[in-house]
Each structure stands twice: as structure tokens, then as C-alpha cells.
Amino acid sequence: MKDKEQNRHVYWNPYFGGFLLGILIIFTFFVTGRGLGASGAMKSSVVTIVEDISPKHAEQNAYYSKFLKDDKSPMNSWLVFETLGILIGAFISGGLSGRIGWRVQHSPKITRRRRLIFAFSGGILFGIGAQIARGCTSGAALSGMAVLSTGGFITMLAIFGTGYLVAYFFRKNWI
Amino acid sequence: MGPLIPNELIPFEWSSIIAIIIGICFGFILEASGFSSSRKLAGVFYGYDFAVFKVFFTAAVVSLIGLFYMDYLGYVDMSMLYIHPTYTWAAIIGGAIMGIGFVTGGFCPGTTLTAVAIGKIDAIVNVLGIMFGVFVFSELFTFFEPIYNGYFQGNITLVDTLGINPYWFVFIMTLVAIIMFAVSDVIRKRVKKVFY
Fold it and tell me: How many independent structural domains does chain A possess?
């Protein structure tokens, strides 16, 4: 138990993690013909919530209506099940390493409140960006790169390139 | 032979079950690699931790090499795989917005889910933010539509765009990745350590 407490910041070797992730992507393409994803399930949730609150509005909106089908809920999709799996898998890994617990992780130089405000605004940007590019780091960049998709490579370069460009302005939050 | 489900070698009914199993592996790998920590993720932008970079590019290179070998040996038909479509400016602008979101929020949608699973409150707030962002995008869809649907080039690959031999490209990309890994280690040694 004490070992667990001390070692909870010890993670896998990144090359080992990357190798297994690569194998998983191959397996996913081999079985399903498509790649991994993460933001798709959040989009399905938003579409479902909006449809529950105001079905008429969802039908009239050109974007929500793309994902609404008469016989099938948007939650009944491959990506939603995969996302449930992500939560389970991460919970198992975190549990085995003693990393589970309610907390806000932030640099000691900033307040909890500041961290939460930035986490929320960063989320908004990511949500908008992932819709414009039709996928996030997993769906567009990683899965796109695995099949040499031009769009996947452009998205990856744009994410990391812009990240480095703006990192200077947000340095107080992290270092 | 592959892909198995589109070729009906595995009945379609199994796809939800397979989705959960693949998701479990994905979540486990991300969490065990440390991607549930926003401070570890942000390290890639400040040079104190290159785990994101190493995991991401190792995965990209391994999956490229693996898929090309399986295509060559006839286990998977690459022309049947789903290729992420290319909308040039949507990819650039969307990616740029995501880049800013990554540095501000410290997570991307996959990693934030792994952090939610182990109880990080900042990650829960981040997911709410992402959902709000999707809502904003959908409500303003008419405004975003020209960029969302414009500059469509089809489901093209770098082979179509650059006219290169894919095998050489993968080989060179692997070499570049290895060199970049070495460079990242040098940078990390020179940057002030951050403990988190």
C-alpha cells in the first residue's frame, strides 16, 4: 500500500504506451475498418440533450438534424460504446495504480478557481475546433495519420503548431 | 480478409461489444501512460515532459508500419479503410482552435475522459466545456458552414497530395520520429524541471 502511495506518479514508459496504442489502432482498423475517436460521444450527448429539451429546434437546426434518425437514438453509436469503454479502462488503470480520488489538479502558482475557469474555456474551444475539423486528436489526427489521410496530418500539425505558438501566453498556468 | 466487420466475417451485432472492449484498452493505455494528468500533457508545450509527443508519434509510426505490412501480406485491404476526409481550411482552423484549447484546458477529449474516470474535477469541467463548445458550434452552424463544408478535397491521402511512395514516406517519418525523440530528450534536460 505504501509503495502504491509513493509510486502513483510513475507511469508506463512512453514508447511502451505508444507501441501498445499503435497495435490497438491496427486492431481497430482490422476489425471495424475505422479508427478510434473520443469527441464523437460528446457530440452525440449534446444532440440527445438538445433533442430531449426541444425536439423541434433540433430538427430545424442543420447540424443536429444530421445526426437524428427516426428509428435510432444518437447515443446508439459505435463511438458512444467505445467512450464508455475508455471510462472503464481508465478507471481500472487508475485504480490499480492508486490514482483515484476527487481532486482539482493545478500548478501551485495558480488558484483552483483559475484552473477550473481555464479548463472550461479550453473545453469550449476544443469542442468548437473538433466540430470544424470533424474530429479531435484521436479521431482526426491519430486515426487519420494511421491511414496517411492528408486532413489528419494537417489537423495534427495545426493542433501542435498552434499549441506551441500560444504556449508562451499561458505559461503561468503550467510552469 | 480484413477489415472484419465490413467484410461480414464478424456479424454486425458484435460491433457494440467490440467497441467497449477497444475502448477499455484505449482508456487503459492512455491512463497508464499518464494522460490523465493535465500537467503532464501540458509539459510537451513547455519542454518539461515529452510523454504526449513520444506516445503519439510512436503510435502513429507503429500503426502506419503495421497497417502497410498487413495490407502487403493481404490481411487487410487498405482501400476499404475509412480515410478521414480532407477539408483543407476546416482542418487548419479547427486544428488551430483545438491547439489553443489544448494549452488553455490542458486536455484533449480522449485524455480528459481518462481523467474524469479517476475523479479529476478539472476534467469534468473540461468535458462540460467541450459539450458547451459543441452546442455553440451547432447553434452557430450557419456561420461555420462555409468553412465546415468548403475546400473539400475528398478522402485523400498524402500519396494523392504529395505524389510520394507511401513506403518511403513511412520509412522517412520513422527516422524523423526517432531523431525528434532524441532531440526532445536533450531539450528536456536543459529545461527547468517541473514537479507535479
Answer: 1
Considering its fold, how many domains does chain B have in total?
A: 1
A148: left (phi over 0), alpha (psi -120 to 50) or beta: left
Q: Has residue A127 been placed in a domain?
A: yes
Residue B87 lies in a domain: yes
Q: Does A164 touch chain B (CB under 8 A)?
A: yes
- Check if A7 contacts B (Cβ < 8 Å): no
> Contacts of residue B28 in chain A, CB cutoff 8 Å?
89-90, 92-93
pLDDT in tens, chain B (196 residues): 879 988 889 988 899 999 999 999 999 999 999 999 999 999 999 999 999 999 999 999 999 999 999 999 999 999 899 999 999 999 999 999 999 999 999 999 999 999 999 999 999 999 999 999 999 999 999 999 999 998 999 999 999 999 999 999 999 999 999 999 999 999 999 998 888 7
Residue B127 covered by a domain: yes
Q: What is the ipTM of this complex?
A: 0.95
Cα separation of B180 and B91, whole Å? 24
CA distances from A111 to A47, A118, B150, B154 (A): 34, 11, 42, 46
Q: Which domain holds residue B100?
A: 21-190
Task: Flag if B133 and A17 touch (Cβ within 8 Å).
Answer: no
Residue B12 in any domain: the answer is no
pTM equals 0.94
Could you tell me if residue B3 is inside a domain? Answer: no
C-alpha cell at A118: 481555464
The torsion defined by the Cα of A7, A9, A15 and A16, in degrees rounded to 10, comes to 50
Q: Nearest 5°: phi and psi at B42? A: -65, -20
Q: Per the structure block, which three cell numbers stand in for A162? A: 498552434
Q: How far is CA A109 from the centre of its chain?
A: 26
